[in-house]
């Protein structure tokens, strides 16, 4: 994988500005290529982070039932238009043999997966697969609800349309009641 190249982004932004008919030398735009490069470093920082490593901080405990962290807000960037999509992630799992991870590590995993050019579907199953492979729990259920600015501010222009994706593994894939419990907790216990 190529590493982050600040100068290349600056040159690219300068070309973009020229391409849209702007003058990159006018005062208000002089620092813009550098600002955008710093901004991209921040929002694409997930490219340099293996997202599953956060989950390796785990503890043992007797709890072998549902853990749900819901309403984890995230911002990502659609790989087709390079504009944001953003919303909430809900992450549930059932620990096996007492192996639980830090709650914040679930949110950090969401963040690391979000911070690269993405598809909402790929984000969803990557989070689920990361949890399955590191913690090997009884089951995982990940739901993402997001608004895509490429559908809101351009193109089909449907602001407010929400895309919901889910990935279910293990117990949640086999048991309707387990999926229903998670959906009920997400919807009704704000
Ligand atoms: N499945 C999926 N599609 C996405 C996601 N983000 C953006 N898209 C879609 O990617 C598609 C790209 O379609 P294209 O026809 O190649 O691009 P376009 O001409 O800009 O399409 P319009 O958005 O319909 O104007 C669009 O339908 C977007 O809505 C995503 O996370 N998942
Ligand atoms: Zn898009």
TrEMBL record:
The keyword Metal-binding applies. Zn(2+) binds at residues 78, 81, 150. GO terms for cellular component: cytoplasm. It comes from the Bacteria. Its EC number is 3.5.4.16. GO terms for molecular function: GTP binding; GTP cyclohydrolase I activity; zinc ion binding. Residues 9-187 form the GTP cyclohydrolase I domain. It catalyses: GTP + H2O = 7,8-dihydroneopterin 3'-triphosphate + formate + H(+). Keywords: GTP-binding, Hydrolase, Metal-binding, Nucleotide-binding, One-carbon metabolism, Zinc. InterPro entries: GTP-CH-I_C/QueF, GTP-CH-I_N, GTP_CycHdrlase_I, GTP_CycHdrlase_I_CS, GTP_CycHdrlase_I_dom. SUPFAM superfamilies: Tetrahydrobiopterin biosynthesis enzymes-like. Pathway: Cofactor biosynthesis; 7,8-dihydroneopterin triphosphate biosynthesis; 7,8-dihydroneopterin triphosphate from GTP: step 1/1. GO terms for biological process: one-carbon metabolic process; tetrahydrobiopterin biosynthetic process; tetrahydrofolate biosynthetic process. Pfam families: GTP_cyclohydroI. The keyword Zinc applies. Homopolymer. Belongs to the GTP cyclohydrolase I family. This is GTP cyclohydrolase 1. It comes from Marinococcus halophilus. The gene is folE.
